[in-house]
Design brief:
Elements: H1 16-21, E1 38-43, E2 46-51, E3 57-65, E4 72-75, E5 83-86, E6 94-103, E7 109-114, E8 118-120, E9 130-137, E10 140-146, E11 158-163, E12 166-172, E13 187-191, E14 203-208, E15 211-212, E16 232-239, E17 242-248, E18 257-265, E19 269-273, E20 277-281, E21 289-297, E22 300-301, E23 308-310, E24 319-320, H2 332-348, E25 352-357, H3 365-387, E26 394-398, E27 412-416
Parallel strand pairs: 25-26
Antiparallel strand pairs: 1-2, 2-5, 3-4, 3-6, 6-7, 6-8, 9-10, 10-13, 11-12, 11-14, 14-15, 16-17, 17-20, 18-19, 18-21, 21-22, 21-23, 24-27, 25-27
Length: about 425
């Protein structure tokens, strides 16, 4: 179906402006005077029309179509001053035409020929990108964000990331991110080079053909540098529905380690601490768990440690002791505790005893590890002797080495199952 000619002034119902001018009559015979020359510019949700003046014109009729066929009157300006029409839909295409109104002979009303038809799509700058975050890396930061909630009627073609003391980075449109929505994929741009140990924050601007958005909100402050080293020497001690975990402290890669997280799989139960020991609770007895530890600092999170395996089981006997300070020699209290443990094991028909040594009275980590293991071996020797050579009970010494015993209270912990 072809384009329909816009309605002429003389074909519309009379309005207030017509009543003021003159009664509606048929146009005079002969060709209509030339119409205005029309141009248009767009902005967010608006279009501004410009047209040339025509001699003798006493007013104009502005018509609009949103489908290229049906035109409706939207304004009756008396001059050719620029006319801005607001409340339009960004990204939607409209057509406009202007006709001049003349006073003819005998106080009749005629109209000029229609202007050229202009087609225009309102667009405006996009709103700012959202959900801006930053992740530190060695000498760099990875800035992540989502597309604007409103693109202003046009596709975003460039994202610019900036921040104090940095040139930032530019992410250009690709088939994968062109026209991305806030609910769509996360977009990323890597800012480098940055100085390790310095603090940075970033914001993002979206750019379309209509202009640039306002800057986004600032990202959280990040400190580029190397992430902490992986915690090492992970030791796990199975307890009743829980696992006690200890490890060697991690170097922070130039930034202090803020926390450690130990995770038991399956189930993904965790414990978090700023020290080098914690206990994962809420586990299932007799289920084998793999435990990994990660360290976190302002510069990121370390790779997970080598997994250590443990199987929680009911604890028959808790801490034993005390030992004499700085010594692995048995005391009368230890000897009495071993005898009580033998009696409990015999009555419960347990088949395994696990011993873990703790040395909270040693001056250094290395000596603490050594002393703790020596104490556990001393208890194991006494326990095997008390059980007798014919006993089927297995006594296992697990590596210890924690320098605190706050969770256990003594120097050697015994668990049986």
């Amino acid at each position: 179906m072809g384009r329909r000619t816009p309605h002429r002034w003389t074909r519309r119902c009379a309005g207030a402006i017509l009543v003021a001018l003159a009664p509606l009559v048929a146009p005079a015979a002969g060709a209509a005077p030339s119409g205005p020359t029309l141009t248009a510019t767009s902005s967010r949700a608006a279009v501004t029309l410009h047209w040339s003046a025509t001699s003798g014109v006493i007013g104009y009729v502005v018509e609009r179509s949103s489908n290229g066929v049906h035109f409706v009157t939207v304004a009756h300006p008396s001059t050719n001053a620029p006319l801005t029409l607001r409340g339009l839909a960004d990204g939607r295409t409209y057509e406009f035409v202007v006709t001049g109104v003349l006073r003819g002979a005998g106080n009749t009303i005629t109209e000029t020929a229609a202007s050229n038809i202009v087609t225009v799509t309102p667009v405006g700058p996009p709103t700012p990108p959202v959900h801006v975050t930053a992740t530190p890396a060695p000498g760099a930061a990875v800035v992540a964000f989502r597309a604007p909630r409103d693109d202003g009627g046009d596709l975003v073609v460039v994202y610019r990331v900036s921040g104090p003391a940095t040139h930032g980075c530019v992410l250009r449109a690709t088939p994968a991110n062109l026209g991305a929505a806030p609910s769509g994929p996360t977009l990323t741009c890597t800012v480098r080079p940055l100085a390790d140990g310095h603090h940075y924050r970033f914001r993002v601007v979206a750019v379309t053909r209509a202009g640039a958005s306002r800057p986004s909100a600032w990202s959280p402050v990040v400190t580029p540098g190397r992430h902490p080293a992986t915690p090492g020497d992970v030791v796990v001690v199975p307890l009743n529905q829980s696992i006690a975990v200890s490890w060697r402290a991690s170097s922070g890669g130039g930034s202090p380690v803020r926390r450690y997280v130990a995770t038991a799989t399956p189930g993904e139960e965790t414990c978090t601490t700023s020290t080098t020991t914690c206990t994962i609770t809420g586990l299932t007895n007799q289920l084998v768990y793999r435990v990994r530890v990660v360290a976190s600092s302002a510069r990121g999170t370390s790779p997970p440690s080598t997994p250590a395996t443990a199987t929680p089981a009911p604890v028959i006997s808790g801490p034993l002791g005390p030992f004499a300070a700085g010594s692995a020699a048995l005391t009368p209290a230890i000897t009495a505790a071993v005898a009580a443990l033998v009696s409990t094991i015999t009555l419960a028909h347990d088949t395994e005893v696990r011993l873990t040594g703790y040395a909270n009275d040693a001056s250094g980590v290395t000596s603490a590890r050594t002393l703790g293991d020596e104490r556990a071996h001393a208890v194991a020797t006494a326990l095997r002797a008390a059980l007798g050579a014919s006993s089927t009970v297995t006594v296992v010494v697990l590596p210890g080495g924690r320098t605190t015993t706050a969770a256990y209270g003594q120097d050697v912990v015994a668990a049986a199952s």
